Amino acid sequence: MTADKTGFEVPEQMRDFAEKSVDQARKAFDDFMGATHKAVSNVEESANVVQAEAADVNKKALGYAEEHVDAAFKFAQELVKASNVEDMMKLQQDYLRTQMESLGEQAREFSNSATKAVSEATKAAQKD
């Protein structure tokens, strides 16, 4: 007995099914990659927004520090000119009151900046 050595032929229906499966897998992969690129882009945009807002906060902090050092030097200059303890105590009281008011305002500004940063980052992340 001799075996037929012509080879195995894949039926047309099997080839059509395999081709459709590969096409569907390719489409699913392309859709996945598109969604991935979009997500990465949104994250990058959010990071850029947060970075810009952080730079703004850093500039404010540096400005506030400069204001406080300047106020401390002015206070020191006035203090050395005081002629008695009562004047020194009044200067100290005024300096502390002014600094507390300034710190309160700066805390509000920091809070507003942080709220804005979160809001902007959220908007950037939700962009389509």
Give the count of helical stretches: 2
Q: In what range is the share of β-strand residues?
A: under 5%
What structural category do the secondary elements indicate? Answer: mainly alpha
Global Rg: 35 Å
Task: Kindly report how far apart the N and C termini lie.
Answer: 69 Å
Given as residue ranges, the uncertain stretches (5+ residues, pLDDT < 50) are: none
Task: Give the averaged pLDDT, no decimals.
Answer: 86
Domains (count): 1
Helix content: over 70%
Secondary-structure element series: HH
Instruction: State the total count of DSSP E strands.
Output: 0
Basic shape: rod-shaped
Main beta sheet: none
Domain Phasin: 31-127
Region (Disordered): 106-128
Protein name: Phasin
Organism: Roseibium alexandrii (strain DSM 17067 / NCIMB 14079 / DFL-11) (Labrenzia alexandrii)
In short:
Residues 31-127 form the Phasin domain. The chain has 128 residues and is mostly helical.
Please, could you describe this protein's structure?
This protein has 128 residues and is an all-alpha fold. It has one domain (12-126). The protein is 88% helix and 0% strand. It contains two helices and no strands. The protein has helices at residues 12-81, 85-126.
